Every structure is written in structure tokens, then in C-alpha cells.
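Minutes, project check-in
Item: structure for the 314-residue chain
Input as provided by the requester:
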Amino acid sequence: MDGTFTISRGSRTEAHVVTVSLEKDGAVGMGECVPYARYGESLDSVCEQIQSLTDALAQGMDRIALQTALAPGAARNAVDCAFWDLEAKLAGKPAWQLAGLNSLSSVVTAYTLSLDTPEKMQQAAEENAARPLLKIKLGGEGDLERLRAVRAGAPNSRLIVDANEGWSATDYDALAPVMLELGVDLVEQPLPASDDAALEGRARPLPVCADEACHDRDSLANLKGKYDVINIKLDKTGGLTEALALKQAAVEQGFSIMVGCMVGSSLAMAPALLLAQDVGFVDLDGPLLLAEDRDTPIEFKGSDMYPAPPALWG
């Protein structure tokens, strides 16, 4: 990674990913996932799940059968996205057409500022003040000072706050009015997912987005009345197939949509861009946080993210 990335749960300096390739009739499909310890995943556990499919894949397992062969999570995501890429190459059509989209456009992604001291976060904000949307990692004592410092450093940017389960309901009540005054658009997962009952029926002057509390369509029933927005990530849904279905179901139930990511390479962002069409918030800045990316990366111009080249995915 390009520096140290810190959230309320800890810091890291490397991004570990798993790459899957599927081959058929001379075509190769690729997919990537990022195992996440928050969900009980590791490189070993994810690789073990993927390798458990070897016989089934050899016998002709397809993308639809995959949905019940593995539970939602990183392992299924890598295989699912590899299937999408393979299907596109075999069909000679872009993946966005196979997904039923009318087109695939560039999007504006948020850029994440890692949790740090107010002084360092203000410096980071100043360095990225030209970006239209900044995402601020908070979740500890001194959050108000950090937030004011970021706003001072980037007075014209829209702001998203991500507390990564680091607050209490009382913290939200105290901080929400101030965040609104400072121009914050929403806060992600302020309370632990296991303790979010406190949000039900609570006045939410600042919209609240479910991240750790939202995985797939089965999550939605428990989110009504607590959250206004859901953050869809392919590593949580278990791939693009479920993510597209989750997006449709969530919109039908009145949720706004954010499309996010783990810290992965351009290969992980490429399928997520299909999901990120026509949504309220896009946070697909993973490659911008890396010191090195794929050999054929997605093009970013500032915060503008462009569709992946076919040599990469889809």
C-alpha cells in the first residue's frame, strides 16, 4: 500500500488479495477478492473454499450453481467475477451488456482519508482538496477535531464519514448536528452491527449507511427502520451476481445505494463499476491507495474512474 491505512479497528501497510482464473475454450476469466478478518476470513480460509470447487468446476459448474455452492463472502466473489469475465469473453460481448445495462459510464469515486491525528488529516485533506468527494475514517476520541480539521483542509469537497462501528448511539446523537453543519452527506456504520437496534426509530438527521450490517439480500429485513443507505461491496455479497440482485431489491425497498470496496486492485474494481452506475455514492478508490496496481489498470483522472479495459476484465 501507499503508506499506512488506518481505521477504527487497526492499521495495515499491505493489501493481500486472492486472484482466480477460469479457462474454457481458450478464453480466460479473472476475478479478485480481498479476505477480511472482520468477517472471519483469511487468505488460507478463502483459498480453501475456492479449491473446494475444483471438482465441481471441472464437471461444468456455472455461475448460477455457484450461488448455492458457496456462502456470500470473498471466496465466492472472486469465482463469480471470474465467471462474468469468462462469459463476456466467450460471448464476445462486454460484461455490462450481459448484466442488462444500457451503457457503462465513468463515475466519480470518493477518496479515503485514513484515521490519524487532526493535523495529519488536515494535511491529507489539503493535498486532496480538489477532489469532489472525500471519505473520512473516524471512530475514536477526538473525532470532532478531526472532522473540523478535514473541513478546514478541503472547504469545498463533499464529505462522507465512516466510523467503522466505532461509535455509540450517544456519539451519533452528539455528532450528527455538527456533521450536518460541516457539510457531511452521510455516516457509514456508526454503531457496531450487533448493537444497531439503537438506530431503530431513532431520529437520523444525518443519513446513516449500513456497511458491516449489510451483506446480501437476506440482510435487508434487519435494516429497515435503522438505516437510510446501504453500502454494497462485492466481497460481502459474494460477487456481482448477488450484488446486482441486492441493489434492485434495496431500491425497491426505499434504500439509497452506495457502492464500496475493500482495498484491492483494479481487477476488483472493474466489476463493481457495473454496480456503481446511477447510485448516490461511489467509493471505489482501492487502486488509488496502492503503491502498485495490475499491469493493465483502470484509468483514473483525479477522482473520475473509467470503465476497465477489456484486457483487464469484462
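Outcome recorded: The first helix runs from residue 43 to 51.
No further action items on this chain.
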